[in-house]
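Tip: read the tokens left to right.
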């Protein structure tokens, strides 16, 4: 009997309808379509309008994932919501997702691993499934960074987009998670962070005036560690299962910047055709980027049973990692 592994049996995505192009951004800050495209690969991103929240995007994506899995919400045992932009500081956004879906038999929590969120969520789901404490886990990678972006800061506001992706996982034979590795380098915690609103700098008139409720990033330094850390993590998961980079059918990296992806391709010696990219139309959607990419690949009929798929991501923390799946 083939080994049972944690496998994706349903997946869904939600992108808000409003498109913000680089040309729109030219009217907001001192930037240009040309700068953004050549430095990041992004042409446009989606921005959630008033009335749409992290939980609402999550529920849309989750319904699609449940439908594909052929499950009712009550069959979900665990909801893992991966986000750094929750509806509220507490309770967990998982609670709001549970309520709106009607997933009354699930327990749940939020995971805060920024852009590495989906990888963290998938790996945590795997632990619950392998110990038998959950049969069906709903993992949501969701981010609404537009609400914590400083729209006067050209170095960050051009990068991010809003989106949600959701996956239902359960134990399956002959497919699923082959290996995953998670890492955290807290020595670099301040490369990407949101200064105020926590216990160090509670909200005050001063924090608002000083624009401290918006994310800050030293993009150039993130860039430098991103390739090395993600590249190493991918090599490790390949070693775990005795595969070489050319035996991977697809690498789906977190969509942060097309130059990071290009450097990763070079580092790993992969052929560019095997690396999925959609940053052009989504921007960096943080925890949502990998599941959103997988949904697109499925829609384009790029995913076939038996294929080996590598995932890798890195974000604030610095939290990062890689995983290998057999589809
Ligand atoms: C943010 C990022 C695109 C910036 O690209 P970069 O090549 O590193 O650019 P730098 O930050 O060195 O800035 C270069 C110049 O462009 C300017 N610049 C920054 N943003 C700009 C914008 N939107 N439009 C025009 N010019 C801009 C800077 O002010 C700087 O000007 P200066 O040389 O006169 O000081 C890039 O560092 C990046 O993508 N990093 C990774 C970030 C990331 O993915 N973070 C999330 C983690 S998943």
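Filled-in amino acids:
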């Amino acid at each position: 009997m083939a080994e049972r592994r944690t496998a994706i049996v349903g997946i869904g995505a939600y992108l808000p309808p409003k498109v913000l192009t680089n040309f729109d951004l030219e009217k907001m800050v001192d930037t240009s379509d040309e700068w953004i495209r050549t430095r990041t690969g992004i042409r446009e991103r989606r921005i959630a309008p008033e009335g749409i929240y992290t939980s609402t995007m999550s529920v849309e994506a989750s319904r699609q994932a449940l439908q594909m899995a052929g499950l009712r919400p009550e069959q979900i045992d665990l909801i893992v919501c991966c986000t750094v932009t929750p509806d509220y500081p507490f309770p967990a956004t998982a609670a709001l997702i549970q309520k709106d879906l009607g997933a009354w038999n699930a327990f749940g929590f939020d995971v805060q691993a920024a852009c590495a969120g989906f990888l963290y969520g998938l790996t945590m789901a795997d632990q619950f499934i392998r110990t038998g404490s959950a049969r069906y886990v709903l993992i949501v990678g969701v981010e609404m960074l537009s609400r914590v972006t400083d729209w006067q800061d050209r170095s960050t506001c051009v990068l991010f987009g809003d989106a949600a992706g959701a996956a239902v996982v359960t134990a399956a034979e002959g497919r699923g998670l082959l290996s995953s590795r998670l890492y955290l380098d807290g020595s670099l915690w301040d490369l990407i962070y949101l200064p105020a609103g926590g216990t160090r700098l509670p909200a005050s008139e001063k924090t608002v005036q000083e624009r401290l409720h918006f994310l800050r990033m030293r993009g150039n330094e993130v860039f430098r560690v991103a390739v090395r850390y993600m590249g190493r993590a991918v090599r490790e998961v390949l070693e775990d299962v005795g595969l070489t980079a050319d035996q991977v059918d697809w690498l789906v990296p977190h969509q942060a910047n097309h130059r990071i992806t290009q450097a990763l391709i070079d580092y790993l010696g992969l052929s560019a055709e095997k690396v999925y990219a959609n940053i052009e139309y989504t921007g960096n959607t943080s925890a949502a980027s990998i599941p959103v990419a997988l949904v697109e690949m499925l829609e384009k009929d790029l995913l076939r049973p038996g294929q080996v798929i590598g995932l890798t991501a890195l974000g604030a923390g610095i939290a990062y990692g890689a995983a290998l799946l057999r589809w």
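The longest strand covers residues 4-14. The mean pLDDT is 97.
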